[in-house]
Amino acid sequence: MNLEKIIPSIRYLAEMTDVLFDQEWAKTALDLKLYYMYRDIFMNKEEYQTIKKAGLRYDITIMPPIMLGKEFNKTAGHDHPLVPDTKITYPEIYQVLSGQAIFLIQDSYGDQIKDIYAVKANKDDLVIIPPNYEHLMINASDKELKNANWICRDFGSNIYKPFRSKQGFSYFALQGPKGEVEWQKNLHYQHIPELKFMEPNRLIEQFGIKKGKEIYSLVKDLKKLDFLKNPQKYKWKM
User: Fold this and answer.
1) If you compute the radius of gyration of the chain from its CA atoms, what whole number of angstroms results?
2) Picking from 155-159, 167-171, 179-183, 184-188, which range would have the lowest pLDDT averaged per residue?
3) Domain count, the chain
């Protein structure tokens, strides 16, 4: 998909200083462009009408390999609202198109973290964010990360405020002495369990989705993405 003629939304450092680990670095850093969000994109008008009618949205995010002081580049982190008349939030599905991503996925209640895990995903890998989990994406590599997602278009906006009040998610991905990721707990949370690590491509088979094709191709079979709109109809096993 050619993005050259599409104007992205840009997330700047100034919008994210309150969720960064390295607050001293942020005080004097230039206002960097951290990542680029191409939202509600499509190949042609016919496919756009199909996507819109299905109540879905396709996005691409591009994240350069830059450091935020001691911390690897990341998204702000967010939650989704509840599906009306349910107690679960809208899920999301991601696919790495190029580069490498780490998805940090947590289930929180106030300043308590009930569950937290990380998923390292390479090109073509798929990651489903299940209901009631907040999530962010990290580029801990030395290459540009290009990532796609499908999501329900029926809700207004993501939820950021609870995490901003706690300086971000419950773990920070810092750069170790050999360039590796060192996980640092965020002490603004009262209780943080040990970080678990899970493989990508989990949960996808139950929805009839297979690794190997770019997920935009699901525009030809959007019924497979019904779980994004109606998660309450499905069983979710973590």
Assistant:
1) 17
2) 155-159
3) 1
